[in-house]
Amino acid sequence: MTSRAFGTLPRFTRRAVCATGLLAIAMSSQAADYPTRPVELIVPWAVGGGSDAVARAFADVAGRNLPQPVIVVNRPGASGSIGHTEGANAKPDGYKLTLVTPEVSLAYLQGIGKTQWQDFNYVARINADPIALVVKADAPWSTLEQFLAHVRNQPGKTTVSNSGVGATYHLAAVALEKKANLEFNNVPYIGAGPAVVGLLGGQVDATFATTGEVGVHVQGGKLKMLAVMSDKRLKDFAQVPTFKERNIDLQLGTWRALAVPKATPPDVMATLRKVVDKAVQDPAYREFFTRQFLGLVNEDGDKFRAVLERENAFYVDIVGKLQLGK
């Protein structure tokens, strides 16, 4: 726009153009200095679960690669919707990040929350794990077949904990019920951490979770894994069969991705992207994921959006078939 053309605009329009230009300059300047104060990382789940562990590991390494600390803030409830909504509606300045999980799609499709996966811009996916069926080490079932036979003999009585109604682990339980003609007594908790604690404490008979939540307990002899919903056996638990091996074609998992509100400046996203790249090269960060049996991933946010589109279509189909929610 030339200065002559600008001069012919009405006064209120000129003011609006100037204000917009000044705002853009201000945001660009702020982004260049980012961050100048602590950054919050919202976790839509309770303390003690896999999402919490991933978030705290990332926050630790990020704080060592930024001039300001990254502080984890847990916002559990409503199948992740409380935390996801807060994160999506935050000011797009990079000072409130969100560790997004698949429930951002699942909760919306079931009428639990209003926030969708499209409401975020994604920096990177940083973790992915398959779901496993787990019982206590002293449980009377040593195989998946024995457990399923027990459930069939007592329909509706076998208690199975999950991370919340409509969450990924609840979906895994319902999908298995449909596939194997079973009926569980599904018991929702406020997150995977509390759900696993419920199993350890004998409050329930089984749970669905990932190796990130139960791997240490399985290796420590407190829990045993009966089967995993992956396409092949896991390296660290090679003795555990897949559901597919047992003629139940179920492959379900979870993931965690670092996301920001839409309209977050590209410079801020670029800074966060660099932090993720540095994190996966950090020996302590990598060792933590290995020690906790968590799947370490570094997938660029733009590429991850294609995964989200395909996954959302899958969830639309399965939520409809299982008649969940709405």
UniProtKB/TrEMBL annotation:
Question: Does the entry feature the keyword Signal, yes or no?
Answer: yes
Q: Which domain of life is it from?
A: Bacteria
Q: Which UniProt keywords apply?
A: Signal
Classification via InterPro entries: BUG (IPR005064), Bug_dom1 (IPR042100)
Signal peptide (from-to):
1-31
Has the keyword Signal been applied to this entry?
yes
- Which family is this sequence assigned to? Belongs to the UPF0065 (bug) family.
The protein's name? Tripartite tricarboxylate transporter substrate binding protein
